[in-house]
Amino acid sequence: MQKTELIYGIRAVIEAINADNSVDKIFIQKGLGGNLYKELEALIKEKGIACSYVPIEKLNRLTRNNHQGVVGHISPIEFHVFEELVENTVESKKDCLFLLLDQLSDVRNFGAIIRTSECTNVDGIIIQKKGAAPVTEDTIKTSAGAAFKVPIAKVDHLRDAIFYMQAAGIRVIAATEKTGKSLYEIDFKGPTAIVMGSEQSGISPAILKTVDDKGKIPLLGEIESLNVSVACAVFLYEAVRQRMS
After folding, report:
1. Could you tell me the residue range of the domain that residue 163 belongs to?
2. How many domains does the chain have?
3. Beta strands 5-8 and 70-74: pairing type?
4. Which of 14, 20, 63, 108 lies 20 to 30 A from 220 at CA?
């Protein structure tokens, strides 16, 4: 298994970004300053890279090397270009199936979702550049290696991605409890994209306003929600069931 790579030092991280390496997230020491830091900050903003400002103790735990207040995380996978992924899939497959993840933050949930996506023949997973769970060693391990098989693309804004997919003839369906409609009433045949929300707050209201349909999983017990990776599996396998019947 390819290991997640950490790079440290302001100049090294700047060079990694400029070399178009898959820098997934950057940890920066709180209160850091200087011209080189300003250069890094501008690059982070330009590229839309996820960034966290943390105490120096956090950086010291990440690496024993001289990090100079900056540690970068390079993804062990290569991300796909969103527009190319959608266009190529729509052209080659009549009943394409995509998955959009709105601010999913837990790397193990992400890994479990990738694994289920591979088992259900999902054509691509779309995540946001900022706020999404990074692809780490734990993600790869939980996915059972499926992260190397399922195309994953990053976008600046999930709403724009939804509009793009709708223009390409893909119906976008939200998995949400904020509807009276069961997922078993929804047609998952044909080009489809399913949106799953974050562990804490579900799908954002702005995203819910853009989708074509909404469905919820019937919950018959006292607990009000399922784990997001389990909920995702329920939706994906309903799509599989309909397409096989």
Report:
1. 82-244
2. 2
3. antiparallel
4. 108
Q: Which residues contact 152 (CB under 8 A, 6 or more apart)?
A: 77, 79, 80, 114, 124, 125, 126, 127, 135
Residues 52, 172 within the same domain: no
> Both 127 and 218 in a single domain?
yes
Report the distance separating Cα 217 and Cα 225, nearest Å: 9
Cβ partners under 8 Å of residue 184, min gap 6: 215, 218, 238
DSSP letters, 130-152, are SSSPP--HHHHHHTTTGGGTS-E
d(CA 243, CA 214) in angstroms, rounded, equals: 19
Same domain, 37 and 116: no
One domain for residues 123 and 237:
yes
Task: Identify whether the C-beta of residue 138 lies closer than 8 Å to the C-beta of residue 180.
Answer: no
Report helix, strand and coil shares of the chain as percent, to nearest 5. Answer: 40, 20, 40
Report the distance separating Cα 150 and Cα 52, nearest Å.
27
> Which of 25, 43, 74 is the C-terminal boundary of a domain?
74
Tell me the pLDDT of the chain (245 aa) as tens digits: 344 578 888 998 998 888 776 788 899 999 898 889 999 999 988 887 888 899 999 899 888 878 889 998 888 888 999 999 999 999 999 999 999 999 998 999 999 999 999 999 999 999 998 878 888 788 888 999 899 999 999 998 999 999 999 999 999 999 999 999 999 999 999 999 999 998 888 999 999 999 999 999 999 998 888 899 999 999 999 999 999 98
Q: Which residue has the tokens 């190529």?
A: 88
